[in-house]
Amino acid sequence: MTDIQWLPFLGVVLLAYAIPGPDFAVVARAAASSRAAGWRAGLGAQTGLCVHMVAAVVGLSLLISRSPTVLSILQILGGLYLVWLGISALRQSTSEGTAASDVRWFRMGLVTNLLNPKAVLFFVALLPQFVDADGVLPLQIGLLGIIDVAIGLAVWAVVTAAVGRLAAGSSNSTSWNRVVGVLFIGIGVALAVEAV
């Protein structure tokens, strides 16, 4: 395991978190509600990442990645889920409805990550490029996955703190819900169209 390419791996992981995607949108929307909600959404997203990691370690991700139909279905479901989240965010911005429960924020982060086919491909196509070819592949994938999850938790902590400051106050929170709602719908439509 001494031949794991640590620096390139860390660079790719940091770059992946720097490019906003569905997980970022969920965490940002939750953080606009409260820091605790942002943390719960981030924990949900990282729990989903743990599921992808375990699937990669046992070989399930490889099977999924070799089936274009399954990947397309996963992508369409992920896109539709994001559109639904976007509509929910827009509805919440125009009403005085109550904020999502703690469990719901966690579930949003979890489901968004689980339905992201790029997470599957990350563990199947990208991670193996950084491992020691003479080492035990599942062990190395697990180790790199754990580091990825830990980095993600740190990133979501920063995002939660930053968005919490930006969206402080009910009027900013409403505006933030609108922005994130449109973002969800845009990403969701793009994912679904790309899969068709």
From TrEMBL:
Transmembrane stretches, start-end: 6-31, 43-64, 70-90, 110-131, 137-163, 175-193
Family matches, as Pfam families: LysE
Keyword Transmembrane helix assigned: yes
Alphabetized UniProt keyword annotations: Cell membrane, Membrane, Transmembrane, Transmembrane helix
InterPro entries in UniProt: LeuE-type (IPR001123)
Subcellular location: Cell membrane
Membrane topology: Multi-pass membrane protein
Residue ranges the record marks as coiled coil: none
Predominant localisation class: membrane
Protein name (Swiss-Prot/TrEMBL): LysE family translocator
Organism: Rhodococcoides yunnanense
